[in-house]
Amino acid sequence: MRDISKIELRQLRQFCMVAEELHFRRAALRLGMAQPPLSQAIAKLEAEIGASLFDRSHRQITLTEAGIAFRAEAQRLLLQLEEAVGIARSAEQGRVGRVRVTFVGAASYGLLPQIVQAHRASHPRVEIMLQERTSVQQIASLQSGEADIGFLRPPFFGASDIRCETLLREPFVVALPEDHRLAARDRLQLTELAGEGFIMFPAHEGPSFHARIISACDEAGFAMRVVQEAVQMHMIVGLVAVGIGIALVPASLRKLGRAGVAYRDLDPGPSALDAEFAMIWRRGEPSSAITAFLETARAVAHTQTIAMRMPPSQTM
């Protein structure tokens, strides 16, 4: 068996050019080289292969049967090389690969869908895997390597190996049964909620976020009376709809559009609440695909933050 390890890609390109032109001088001009070195390169290739690729017995050269077969395979190899180079460059730019994303339920009504849509548009060859998880579960998933990026409501503590970046802030609103006495008002003070029964997520599912809400109520002069707990925000809103109680939820939950629920703004004040939306990822050097997704998230969040600051007439 002949040793073909000496065959170079340069020779394949030269052969394909001669096979296209069927003329050594024209092929040499297109390759930017002199004709004699090209003729020598083709002769060397034929010797290494052990077969004649061109019939030179006539005035115009033609491909031999071996040359016709070799041309098809040479073109395929060159095309595969171009594709391999393209894939490598895309990987370097984060345009291929996989990103595993976890998120709290409330994120699906706000910024996250816009981020995913924008990234799929700009990086169509990147696979985005989405899974809803609580804040505590997200941190565990990142630490175990089961997830790459998480979206949650900060703050959180005790995870020094996790990086956190706030993307935007949004106000809290009050979710009320639509027949509640306070639903007739457009805006409420937090102090007016004293004595109400609240639906709240468990403290262990978001300790710091939970503590902020409890603390705001304390500062407003009352202790929150929790009548029901639910892990996911959409379940909390569903319980509000059937009259179990009221809830304090991020303003993006308005998009849920649950029948039987009225959302009312809270007046800003000493006890004003806002909800941060943040992304988390492992410390270290993230892959190019992860880095590109983080950049998309920042860009989308920046655009939405500007839109939130504009007067209503400018956001149409």
Describe the structure.
With 316 residues, the chain is of the alpha/beta class. The protein folds into 2 domains: 84 residues, Orthogonal Bundle (Arc Repressor Mutant, subunit A), CATH 1.10.10; 213 residues, 3-Layer(aba) Sandwich (D-Maltodextrin-Binding Protein, domain 2), CATH 3.40.190. Helices cover 41% and strands 22% of the residues. The protein is built from 9 helices and 12 strands. The strands form 3 sheets. Strands 3, 4, 5, 6, 7, 10, 11 and 12 form an 8-stranded mixed sheet that branches. Helix 5 links the parallel strand 3 and strand 4. It is rod-shaped, with a radius of gyration of 32 Å. The C terminus is likely disordered.
Radius of gyration: 32 Å
CATH class of the largest domain: Alpha Beta
Strand content: 15-25%
Q: What oligomeric assembly is this protein in?
A: single chain
Helix content: 40-55%
Enumerate the spans where pLDDT stays under 50 for 5 or more consecutive residues. 312-316
Q: Give the total of domains.
A: 2
Please give the largest β-sheet.
8 strands, mixed
How far apart the termini lie comes to 73 Å
Per the CATH scheme, the topology name of the largest domain is: D-Maltodextrin-Binding Protein, domain 2
**What is the residue-mean pLDDT, rounded to a whole number?**
86
Note the total helix count: 9
Order of helices and strands: HHHEEHEHEHEEEEHEHEEEH
Inertia-based shape: rod-shaped
CATH architecture of the largest domain: 3-Layer(aba) Sandwich
Family: Belongs to the LysR transcriptional regulatory family.
Pfam family, one: LysR_substrate
InterPro entries: LysR_HTH_N (IPR000847), LysR_subst-bd (IPR005119), WH-like_DNA-bd_sf (IPR036388), WH_DNA-bd_sf (IPR036390)
Transmembrane segments: 233-253
